[in-house]
Design a protein that fits this description.
This protein is α/β, with parallel strands linked by helices. 62% of the residues lie in helices and 9% in strands. The chain is built from 15 helices and ten strands. Helix 1 (3-32) runs antiparallel to helix 2, helix 4 runs antiparallel to helix 5 (139-186) and helix 4 runs antiparallel to helix 8 (255-300).
């Protein structure tokens, strides 16, 4: 991935040696007052300088491309892993942490691919090339250069260990600040009403100051490695200057002195070129620290299920081909535990629902109703037992097919900051205007749409800002009508509605349920309007006496 940047770096080093040799020839010719060699040396020096500039630009471009490609691949793989795990991942971490991993932590790997990898290779290859060139001119000068170069990694290692620790702490502080800021922004209304705006602002200020202090600590430690490198470079420069000065003083006047002066200039010009890749390596070392801290966060993410089938592996009889008149659902001794300290979320749940049937899961909060819905959505996988759709294990159905099979309406539908029309069409972007209009009619949205300034084209805020709870639920119902999926999952769809609005929404849900298999988790007394079978749950168990029997 970084091979292009490395190749350009090696070529740049070779051109630097050529440029130093041309400068030495130029000095030698000036001392001897030979005009033709002066012109030749000047042309070679100029061409080498132009070549180094071009190669440097190309190297920077290749490094940027390598960094962009590496981040793009990692971000794609991370997003695929998060999507394959599903929303159940939010039970293990905050959404701000996940967003920080996908955005900031992967962005922190840019320096690893663009700078650290090329610098690590060139920190070895370029000094070797320069020492070889110096050894041809003067072995003792090359030895001084090599010894001083070998001292650099020692100082860099001491500073680098501290920089890595400081970088890890700095990224952790940044994640804490991101999480705190997102939480406070989500609850800004509650904070203001509670009169805690000033105290929360002060707490955010403290967290920001902590991040600033940790960031400066990273830079302070990083500067130590630069100081060690500068010290080694100064020692090498002084040592070679003294050694070459002695040789010039003992050289015979004339051609011998001119040759020795040129050789001395060549060696002195090689000193900064020798330490330049080591300096780049030192500067990139903190990129390695950032990369290591970011990689730890990526490694900590749960791995995607390797047994999950891909589209290419989808069986011929996959339920994606089933018509929208409903599908059968069966739970066979399903058990799932989110947190062992809190006990099982589902403990041996068994039931069977025929195609086109309706099932109402009732019970107190924490009984396991929503967990049943999450398993059917593919957001969670049982620890044991089987979940069957039309006789096919849900684990064998590819996620894309399972998504097309199901329509889901939750307590608070997810609405985007765009028009109502686009929010409905989100269920099926390719739907025609006629199909959208029919979904709107079936969801009984005509009444409140007539009161909006632009009807379906009215723009709403993120999360449905500007709409009532009942209006937002009708948009979710219209989505479900437009999707026309055979399996309808309802998770407390009327939890926050007043009785009158709740009754209206249930009327729309009754129309939506016709010809579909419906499973609803609800506390509502109005749930019986769906005319479905009722199963009571508590502590992850079914309490109904007919829980083991299928529905005719």
């Amino acid at each position: 991935m970084a091979s292009g940047a490395i190749a350009f770096g090696v070529v740049g080093t070779i051109l630097a040696i050529v440029q130093a040799a041309a400068a030495a020839d130029l000095l030698r010719a000036l001392i001897m007052r030979n005009h033709q060699p002066v012109l030749t040396a000047a042309i070679v020096f100029g061409l080498a300088a132009i070549g180094r500039t071009a190669v440097g630009a190309l190297g920077d471009s290749a490094a940027f491309a390598a960094g962009a490609a590496g981040r793009r691949r990692l971000r794609s793989e991370t997003l695929n892993r998060l999507l394959s795990i599903g929303p159940s991942l939010l039970r293990q971490g905050h959404s701000a942490q996940l967003a920080g991993i996908v955005v900031d932590r992967i962005e922190a790997l840019e320096g690893l691919f663009a700078r650290w990898i090329p610098a690590a290779f060139l920190a070895v290859a370029a000094p070797i090339l320069i020492v070889i060139a110096a050894a041809i001119a003067d072995p003792w000068a090359a030895l001084i250069l090599a010894v001083c170069g070998l001292l650099v990694p020692v100082g860099m290692a001491v500073a680098g260990i501290g920089a890595a620790v400081a970088s890890r702490s700095q990224l952790a502080a940044m994640m804490r600040l991101q999480t705190r800021f997102l939480d406070r922004m989500r609850g800004i209304g509650t904070i203001v009403l509670a009169g805690q705006a000033e105290s929360e602002a002060a707490a955010l200020r403290v967290a920001a100051d902590e991040l600033r202090a940790r960031t400066m600590r990273v830079l302070r430690v990083a500067f130590l490695s630069s100081a060690a490198l500068d010290c080694a470079a100064a020692v090498a420069l002084i040592g070679i200057a003294i050694q070459q000065g002695e040789l010039i003083l003992h050289a015979a006047p004339g051609a011998a002195m001119a040759a020795q002066s040129g050789r001395a200039l060549f060696l002195l010009l090689l000193v900064p070129e020798f330490f330049a890749p080591l300096r780049a390596f030192a500067l990139a070392y903190q990129d390695r620290g950032h990369g290591a801290a970011a990689a730890e966060a990526l490694i900590a993410l749960p791995a995607a299920d390797p047994s999950a089938p891909s589209l290419a592996e989808a069986p011929v009889a996959a339920p994606i081909t089933i018509a929208a008149h409903g599908i059968s659902v069966a739970f066979e001794d399903v058990r799932l535990t989110w947190d062992k300290a809190r006990g099982p979320a589902l403990d041996g749940v068994t039931f069977r629902l025929p195609a086109g049937g309706a099932l109402i899961l009732a019970g107190p909060s924490g009984a396991g109703k929503s967990t049943v819905i999450e398993i059917l959505l593919g957001f969670a996988k049982p620890d044991s037992g089987r979940v069957m759709l039309n006789g096919m294990d849900i684990a064998s159905i590819v996620p894309q097919a399972l998504s097309r099979l199901t329509a889901w309406i939750s307590q608070k539908p997810v609405l985007f900051a765009t028009s109502i029309r686009d929010n409905i069409r989100f269920a099926r972007p390719e739907a025609s205007a006629t199909e959208v209009a029919e979904a709107v009619r079936l969801a009984s949205m005509d009444g409140f749409l007539a009161e909006l300034p632009q009807g379906l084209d009215t723009v709403v805020g993120e999360g449905g800002y500007g709409l009532s709870g009942g209006q937002a639920q009708r948009i979710a119902i219209a989505r479900a009508f437009l999707k026309n999926a055979p399996l309808l999952l309802l998770d407390e769809p009327t939890a926050h509605l007043d009785p009158a609005t709740e009754a209206e929404v249930f009327e729309s849900l009754k129309r939506l349920a016709v010809g579909r298999t419906v499973i609803m988790a609800s506390h509502s007394a109005q749930a019986h309007l769906l005319n479905g079978r009722r199963l009571n749950m508590a502590a992850g168990r079914l309490l109904s006496t007919d829980q083991q029997r299928g529905v005719a």
